[in-house]
Amino acid sequence: MFSSRFHWDSRPNRLTELLAEKRRDGTPILDLTESNPTHAGLSYPAEMLRALADERALRYDPIPAGSSEARAAVSRYYEARGHRVDVSRILLTASTSEAYSYLFKLLTDPGDTVLVPRPSYPLFEYLATMESLDVRQYPLVYHGGWSFDLDALAAEMSLRTRAVILVNPNNPTGSFVKRGELATLVKLCADRGIALISDEVFSDYGLCSDAERVTTLAGVEGCLAFSMSGLSKIAGLPQMKMGWIVASGPEQVRREAMEKLEWIADTYLSVSTPVQCAADALIEAGEAVQRQIRARSAKNLAVALDTLRGSAANVLSVEGGWYITLQVSRVRSEEEWALKLLEEGVLVQPGYFYDFYAEAYLVVSLLTETGSFREGIEKIKSATDEHR
Q1: How confident is the model at residue 386 (pLDDT cuts 50, 70, 90)?
Q2: Under a CB-based contact definition with an 8 Å cutoff, are residues 52 and 44 in contact?
Q3: pLDDT band, residue 9 (cuts 50/70/90)
Q4: How many percent of the chain have pLDDT more than 70?
Q5: Please, what sign has the CA dihedral across residues 93, 94, 98, 102?
Q6: What is the DSSP letter of 268?
Q7: CATH of 14-43+286-385, one of 1.20.1250.20, 1.10.10.60, 3.90.1150.10, 3.40.50.150
Q8: For a tag on the chain, would you pick the N or C end, based on fewer CB atoms within 10 A?
Q9: In 297-380, at which residue ranges do the beta strands (DSSP E only) sit?
Q10: Model confidence at 3: pLDDT above 90
């Protein structure tokens, strides 16, 4: 009696089972997977709470694209970063996940295909399956730095391909799209009538500078493109549930896309009034949270590079976000490495969680408090150096 679209397998993997056992036993765990800013010991400005005490929140005036005030706040966010985005190009959503859902509804029919990067965050298959879509992967390759295999991406395109998804910077590789790559992607998509979808939630968290880096697709003109972000990362507020889509590209198709997106949004009206009323203050105050996250990420990256220098665990090049990837010896599988480290009190993620093409990689969060992070990295060094 239930949908056959999903593989309804809720059995826990070995890492989840061992973690539950350790927590039941009260074993101290150094969590190097922390992804929730509200659990990371950051200091949140008091004005964030004050912004929610707005009398306008008691009045319900549903607007499918979101209130003009909240969209104007998003527009100012882009203006502060050197990008002019008119409010007519902005549509609010409750999250980036919902934004993907809206865009899949806009662009695809059941059985159509979307192209997604590999490695990357394991979300797309679930979201696409909910829309009865086929997911095809294109590779990111590593040669001292990450880049697109554009020939492989082009080879995956078919008559049923409706969108190419970018994660910029990628999670977990931390790699940004470069200008030359974007130019090729825009031409490929324009020639084939395919849209670009860019997930830019980590774009404010660059770890180094690069003039060739693209931080947003909000200025793309050559093909239909959508940029997504939200309060979850830019203000460290995943619980506030406000994201957005910015439409770019040729004016006529962009306007048509926005009209249809508003029609889709009107059937859900999911973004709450209180968060829209507070959006301006939350985005502005979020700058203080961003500074803390960037400072911690930079410090923890330095700790990892210093501690693991010359060791059997190699830190792969990273440009942004708040994760790093460690390449470790293949004497064990990624799962076995993760289980061994957890036995020693360190929680990491195996690379197969993110669909890495080969063994053996471990993914570590830079958001973890620095004392715990340092201790965890030292244990990783000791464990991996046993097999040099």
Answers
A1: confident
A2: no
A3: confident
A4: 100
A5: negative
A6: T
A7: 3.90.1150.10
A8: N
A9: 314-315, 323-327, 346-347, 349-350, 361-365
A10: no
Assigned token pair, 113:
């295909």
Give the CATH number of domain 47-284; options: 3.40.640.10, 2.10.110.10, 3.40.50.970, 3.20.20.80: 3.40.640.10
Cα separation of 169 and 190, whole Å? Answer: 23
Domain coordinates of the chain in residue numbers?
14-43+286-385, 47-284
Query: CA 166, CA 159: separation in Å to the nearest integer?
Result: 20
pTM of the model: 0.96
The pLDDT value given to residue 235: 98
Sign of CA dihedral 364, 369, 372, 373: positive
- Is 91 exposed, middle or buried (CB count within 10 Å of its CB: 0-12, 13-18, 19+)? buried
In the three-class reduction of DSSP (H, G, I as helix; E, B as strand; rest coil), residue 195 is classed as strand
